Amino acid sequence: MPKVLVVVGMPASGKNIARDCSGAMRIPYLSTGDLVREECRNRGLEPDADNCGAVSDELRGIDPAELTHRLITAVESRFKDEPLVVLEGMRSWEEIESLKRRFQVTLCAFILPRSERRARMAARGRPEDDPSRFDERDLREIRYGASAPIALADHYVLNEGSVEDSTRRFARIISECMRSGGSGAGHRE
């Protein structure tokens, strides 16, 4: 089974840097957000803020770790021979614990001040990004439990500089995971 690097952070904190960096390094990347958008499309729904929020609430209401269980199944079936897989979108410590029961897990949190996250959300133009509902979305993430994995991360990427700086920081974390594979002492990159 692969080692798992879990990326956490509030909306628009820069987690897509992790996706792009992982892709450039040819490391599989799976996201609960991708699963929610896919589930919306499977139901014939536009993946906008209302539908993504409702589907996410529904799936997590059935089982708070439902989306994580779907990612675990994907890792075990499609990526079992990979040395490392990057997962993104876990919102609670229970989801992290589910992963730790199956894989060697390292946790990395992307951090960015609220004002910058709000501006980035307005600029990126995803269907589920409604800047007028920024606070509502943050509170939903906190209600899911997102603050615990962020607070207890092994690594932090303070994403206030350039994309290139944050990409280099995340690439170093990936390299460390590839070498050591285990959870490291928490520190900021």
Could you explain how this protein is built, in words?
- By secondary structure, the chain is α/β, with parallel strands linked by helices.
- It has a single domain, classed as P-loop containing nucleotide triphosphate hydrolases (Rossmann fold).
- It has 9 helices and 6 strands, in the order βαβαααβαβαααβαβ.
- It has a 6-stranded parallel beta sheet.
- Helix 9 links the parallel strand 5 and strand 6.
- Helix 1 crosses helix 9 and helix 2 crosses helix 3.
- The longest helix has 18 residues.
- It is globular, with a radius of gyration of 16 Å.
Write down the overall mean pLDDT.
88
| Radius of gyration, CA atoms, in whole angstroms | 16 Å
Tell me the strand percentage band. 5-15%
Our count of domains comes out at 1
Biggest pleated-sheet summary = 6 strands, parallel
Apparent shape: globular
- Which CATH-level-2 architecture? 3-Layer(aba) Sandwich
In short:
The protein has 189 residues and is α/β, with parallel strands linked by helices. 53% of the residues lie in helices and 14% in strands.
Characteristic key phrases:
189 residues, Rossmann fold, 6 strands, 53% helix, globular
List the helices and strands and how they pair.
Elements: E1 3-8, H1 15-24, E2 29-31, H2 32-42, H3 49-62, H4 66-78, E3 84-88, H5 93-100, E4 105-111, H6 114-124, H7 134-144, H8 147-151, E5 155-158, H9 163-180, E6 187-188
Parallel strand pairs: 1-3, 1-4, 2-3, 4-5, 5-6
Helix pairs in contact: 1-9, 2-3
